[in-house]
Design brief:
The chain is mostly helical and 337 residues long. It folds into two domains: 204 residues, Rossmann fold (3-Layer(aba) Sandwich); 90 residues, Tyrosyl-Transfer RNA Synthetase, CATH 1.10.240. It starts with a helix and ends in a 7-residue tail after the last helix. The protein binds tryptophanyl-5'AMP (TYM). Tryptophanyl-5'AMP binds next to β1, α2 and α8.
């Protein structure tokens, strides 16, 4: 059994437990997690240490962590097949973060667009953690010798950096780390804000700009109806000139499997009303089963605890092995001589 698991390729991905998970998180990442669970050996982490790069209310963060765990499970992820755990429960993430930071250049981190965006958003708290955030992300991925990382397009630059760090380390010490590949959805890799479709949908923006995975059907319909489009009344995929309509088309296509042509043919020339309702329907039918499961799972604290403990134990075993190798390569003194 163990040998069989080892032969499967490994997947790692993480989601920050801040605020509400959004439709962007779902289409860009979470939905793919489930699709990969049979073919791969998967670890999915609630990256609570990353969340601290922005000031958090401790009670809120604690709640958001459990909510995120419950959403992972409610989306259908099987905790037997997948390792579902909290980043902070496996201390090796922090240790590897330090070692890898010694293999990352300031210039590389300065080029990260997320750092630039977040420093502009949180100008009063441009902390060192925000700057070195991508190194911790590289540590997350490399710690488990991950082959593939399912993420949205906004994390592509961070993944590229993780690959560079792995290659640099391997260049000095031999083949220590697996150099990971990204896994992106064909449609919906970047779900945009409903109010400003030139920006990505983000849980840290005002509520009307995103759909939360836990939004009820009436809220979803209302937000969809108010989504920014244009005055052309033309359902045509043209992200450059019609970012609002194109974003809604991507959402519908990602969730219903309809091609852009089919969507255009079905909804063009009828006004945006029926089109927006169809998008809302597709979102509601994707999210409703998750919401129903969520209610059940989030009430079962003992179950959540057991998944957390089991996930931490299983992840720690892999992390421990990697770190023995890494420390040895680096020349870190072992406890037993
Ligand atoms: P986070 O928490 O911002 O987002 C979690 C996942 O959701 C994807 N995503 C989107 N996809 C499409 N459209 C959107 N509007 C959208 N918004 C978010 C993200 O690309 C991501 O896949 N740094 C990561 C968390 C992380 C991680 C990792 C991911 C930490 N360590 C290691 C992979 C591997 C982040 O902030 O994701």
């Amino acid at each position: 059994m163990e040998a069989n698991i080892q032969q499967k390729k490994r997947i790692f991905s993480g989601i920050q437990p801040t605020g509400q998970l959004t439709l962007g998180n779902y289409i860009g990442a979470l939905r793919n997690f489930k699709l990969l669970e049979d073919e791969y050996d998967c670890l999915y982490s609630i990256v609570d240490m990353h969340a601290l790069t922005v000031r958090q209310n401790p009670a809120e963060l604690r709640k958001a962590c459990l909510r995120t765990m419950a959403i992972f499970l409610a989306s259908g992820l099987d905790p037997q097949k997948n390792i579902i755990y909290f980043q902070s429960h496996v201390h090796e993430h922090a240790e590897l973060n330090w070692y890898l930071s010694c293999f990352t250049y300031m210039g590389e981190l300065q080029r990260m667009t997320q750092f630039k965006d977040k420093s502009a958003k949180h100008a009063d708290n441009i902390n060192a953690g925000l700057f070195t955030y991508p190194v911790l992300m590289a540590a997350d991925i490399l710690l488990y010798m991950s082959d593939m990382v399912p993420i949205g397009a906004d994390q592509k630059q961070h993944l590229e950096l993780a690959r560079n760090i792995a290659q640099r380390f391997n260049g000095v010490y031999g083949d220590v780390f697996v150099v990971p590949e990204g896994y992106f959805p064909k449609v919906g890799a970047r779900v945009m804000s409903l109010q400003d479709p030139t920006r990505k949908m983000s849980k840290s923006d005002p509520e009307e700009t995103y759909i939360a995975i836990l939004d009820k059907p009436d809220v979803i319909r209302r937000k969809m109806r108010r989504a920014k489009t244009d005055s052309e009344n033309c359902v045509e995929f043209d992200p450059e000139n019609r970012p609002g309509v194109s974003n809604l088309m991507s959402i519908l296509s990602a969730l219903s499997g309809m091609s852009m042509e089919e969507i255009s043919e079905t909804y063009s020339g009828k006004g945006y009303g029926p089109f927006k309702d169809a998008v809302a329907d597709s979102v509601i039918s994707a999210l409703e089963p998750i919401q129903n499961e969520y209610e059940r799972i989030s009430a079962d604290k003992a179950y959540l605890e057991s998944v957390m403990q089991d996930g931490a134990d299983r992840a720690s075993r892999i992390a421990h092995k990697t770190m023995l190798k890494v420390r040895k390569k680096l020349g870190i003194a072992p406890l037993k001589l």
